Structures are given as structure tokens and as C-alpha cells.
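Deliverable D4.2, example record:
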Amino acid sequence: MLERYLLVWLVAASFAALVWPAIFGPAALDPFVLSKAYLPYLFAVAMFAIGWMLPKDEVRQVRQRWPAVLAGTAVQYGTMPTLAFLVAKLGGFTGDALIGIVLVGCVPGAMASNVLTLLARGNASYSVSLTTLATLLSPLAVPLALRLTLEGAQGVSLDFWAVSWNLCLTVVFPVTAGFALGNTFPGRERIAKRVGSTVANLVILWIIAVVVGLNRSNLAQITLPLLVALFGVNAGGYLAGYLAGWRMRLPEPMRRALTLEIGMQNAGLGATLATQLFPDRPAAAIAPAIYTFGCMLTGAMLARTWAAWDDRRATSDASSPVND
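Output generated by the structure prediction step:
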């Protein structure tokens, strides 16, 4: 229920964060605002849960098909930051909006892409392999992408190694620790999948709700041009992923996995990074939060379209007369 209707829960949690002061009064204890200081730890918990769910066989797939995994990850890190920066500049965005859009393009590895790849009849193993490698490379790739796109723009200055260490603490180390725990107790894989998935999804829901709660006064910045720009990044990512898979001569299930992996960014991480790297610019987290809704909606629509297309083709093949 949680994974299937995650978009519905996202809307409900965000709405609760938005109307909290109106219901309980401005002087009431606000759990969303109070959670700001704990966002890095919450995200680390989510990544630990994801690592705990990661089967050993999936990690082995990274080594066995490393050319396709490395090429797909290179497309992701090469395409999305560049695409996000170009969309932001062509749209005339500045300040917090520009930073938020670029952050969306620099944080790959959305766990929802793995679930939607299954729905799309794609290669889930390849999807998990891409997510795994992108996660492990994030301490180097993300700060490099941020420096290349944001350094010097709007007075933004980033400490490469500080960002890198931050990602190690909140992403790589928790995933590695969770994976180690899962392999220490391999007999509890079913429990890990059930509990880990629930914990990870609940944490992401809370992170996005916190971002909404912190930006109640800034929601007027959600304009139609911003929505169009984020959709452009999302659709461009899908297109780049499918074309790259075609150019790499991947089979159709792997193309679908690559398409969803590239187009669906880890906007939860983007929102968390925005609150850490730009504490004086809370509105920078708005674009990643919006992207979470958008990419889940478009990803689900794309996955269901692919699945329906396969079903229609199978039905057509089954009803076609067999020629002797």
C-alpha cells in the first residue's frame, strides 16, 4: 500500500505540513520545522535501509556487466547536470530557483526507479546495478557536477571536499553498513525487504514534508515556468536514457531500466543537500521537492504505458492465426 500509493502519501504528508500552523495555531509545536536539523540523519537512515535490502547477487551484477553499468552511469552523470543547467539558464532562472533546478540534475540514484522498472517489464537487475554504482560514485561525481554547474553562478561557492565528505556520511557509509548487515544475517532477507522498504519510503515522505513546512512562505515561487522547466529536465532525462540504451544496443528491458534510472533523480537527496549547503536559501529545496512528485507521476505513467503496450502485443500475437 505504501509503495503503490506513494504519490498519494506524498501529497497527504505535504498538505499536512502546509496547513499545520493553520490547524494548530502558529504558536503550536511544529514537527516539520523542528526536523530540519535532523534531515541528514534521516536521509542516512533511508540509505541504510536501502543498503539492507540490497541483495548480494545484485552487487555481483555490477562486476559482471560492468561495461553497460559504467556506460549507463556515465550517461546519467554527464547528461542530467548539463541538461538541468541549460534548462535553468534558458528559462532565465536565477538565485534559489536556479540552484534548485541544478541540484535536481546532480543527484542520481532514485530508489523508486527500481520499483517502476519492474512495473515497466524492464530489467530490474540492471536498474539496481545502475543505482548502486551511481550511489558509490556520488561523493566524487555530485560535488564535481555541482562545481562545474554552480561555481561562479549567482555568487555560489562550494567546498568540493566538504560536499564529498557529507555524501560519504549520509549516502555511501549508511548504504555500505546496511549491505554488510544484510549479508551478516542473510536468512532475514524477507524481513529486510519489508522493513527496509517501509522505513526508506517513510523517511523520504517526511523529508519532502519537512521541505514543504520550511517553505510555507515561499510557495509563491512555484510558478508555471518552474514546473515547465522541471518537466523539461525529467522528459529530457527519459529521452537521453532511451537513446543512450539504443546507441549502446541494449535489449529493450535494459533500455527501459536506463530510461527510468536517468529520468528519475534522487530528489530527496537534493532537498537534503539544499538545506545543508544553502541554509540561508531555504527556497532552493523547493525544486527538488516538486521534482519528487513530478518524476514519480511521469515515471509511473511511462512504466504503465510500457506494460500495457507489452500486454497488447502479447494479446495480438496470441490471437494471430498461425501460418503453416
